Amino acid sequence: MESLKSHKFTFIYNGSEQHDKKLLGYLNASKTKFHQLDIVKTPLTEQQLAEIATGLKVPVHQLVAKGKAKEKGVSFDDITESEVLTVLVKNPDLLQTPILGLYREYRIVKDIADVNRLDALVKQEIGSEKH
User: Fold this and answer.
1) Would you state the CATH architecture of domain 4-129?
2) Max CA pair span of the chain
3) Rounded Cα gap, residues 29 and 89, in angstroms
């Protein structure tokens, strides 16, 4: 599996989540070119998950959607980062999504305002590359 760093702008989403699909549609309408990754169709590897945690500047445990984990009865108390990565690979629906990546930085997206801010950053980066 390739590194996520090979793409300038990446939208990581859960194709079974209505909220994620809504934000994907909004991003598609923005006409910004980006790589999209549906974690249901293409689960992330442990390496990619670690890369996202590093880009978010958070411990791996914070990648977990706590509400979904609680609903499924999955506890992340007293387990190692490696074990968290293994659980997330096997249960991609427990990953907080959507996530936008710009080069090596990542952000959890909450709403359209977040998409707009990151879309503006991408356009700014593209504009600075042309000069």
Assistant:
1) 3-Layer(aba) Sandwich (3.40)
2) 52
3) 30
